[in-house]
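Structure representation:
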Amino acid sequence: MPASRLRWPLSAVLVTGPSMAPTLRHGDAVLVRRGGRAIRPGDVVIAVFRTRPDLLVVKRAVRPAGGGWWLSGDNSLVTDDSRAYGVADVQGRVVARYWPRPGRVPSDRL
């Protein structure tokens, strides 16, 4: 999903790929909030890597870095996170999963 599609304060995003398993799985649909409280380490976020501006990703915020965020996937076997692409700019915070298993998406305090 191109980053320009996150235009509303609350947007729906479809998760693709295994990088956030077991927290989020391929095919999960989540609600993303732009604005609101500041991003904290451990939050699940929607972001764009500066080296891959065409790719919108769902990752976990680890720490602020270089004016953006260092991100990590929950599945450590998949390396499509900041280890491969560097710093990312956060577009919003995942607040809930609404399909197929509705519920709050847990934040891990790293």
